[in-house]
Amino acid sequence: MRLHVGSLCLALVFFSANSFAHKDTEPPHQTYSEGNLALENGSTIENFKISYTTQGTLNADKSNAILMVTAIGGNHHRIDYLIGPGKALDTDKYFVICTDAIGNGLTTSPSNSQTQPNISFPEFNIRDMVNSQYRLVTEQLGINKLVAVVGASMGGMQALQWAVSYPNAMQSVIPIIPLAKTHAWTTGVLEMLRQSIMTDPGYQGGKYDKPVEKGMRLWAGWLSGVIVRTPTYQNQQFNTPEAEINFINKLEDASWKRMDANDWIWQSRAYDRHDIGQTKGFNGDTIAALKSIKAKTLILAGTGDLLNPESDAKESAKYIPKARYVPINDVIPMGHLSGAGATPNENEVQNKAIKQFLSALNK
How high is the mean pLDDT of the chain? Predict the structure, then answer.
């Protein structure tokens, strides 16, 4: 059995809302109360609070801030492999704001709302996430222009949306394994994951009073054990059916409790509806929205990605003025796992490319 132990350990927590558990020695969780958050669909999230942490020191003119936005099911630790002294998002140089997206269980979500719990929670989209983050950055932190907005997966999608919604609010954006628009394939994957949860009798139409174990086991196995990987990568890890099945079973045991079922379903529906072309003023024209981006752009994508196909990232890079495109792992296609901090090699590729990109911003 050819098992890469480090990759297995990371897979067990991939896309986890509780991954990389927050320690007492780390920057404290903070929240910013935004009151009733008006959503693009006309609904309102009541008593909305956005969760975030900060690392590094904000300089006197507030010109060294980087905003990190997170993946579906992820939290503010999602791209820790890029954050810290000497890394791409160097906390000796930058003030790094790490946010939690609507619906991840830390920021206001179906699982923690006191007045709109579970299925009474309004559906939201990625622009709503970005709008709530913009208020945090400008109102709470008093920052008018960010050095960069960076995120992986749904975080990469938010980064692109930031560049379209608030074109003058940042010098640069760094979308990792992103989509500019969610197409039918990805929606199909997400819908089957939702059905894996919702067809469990324990789901009870979303009004469950205990974790939805059977459905969430299927969800964990499909998402973290199959969809975020590629056949090439998985075949290199395991050379017998027994080894693969054992891996899936252990992954499900370790990770089925990692996120509330409704939280994930609500975030996945936001993922479905993502299209930067639907931003006001673009009339559904995704290409026009991409062409409008003023921020310097570095896109990194995963070869063979089965969740966010890299063809979308390549297409986006063609239309964004002077965008740079970097494949994270062409030698051993890892797919969506490429943007997860899974191996030293892909970590090095991302840290090197992002560090060079940021250092050249003002040249």
Answer: 93
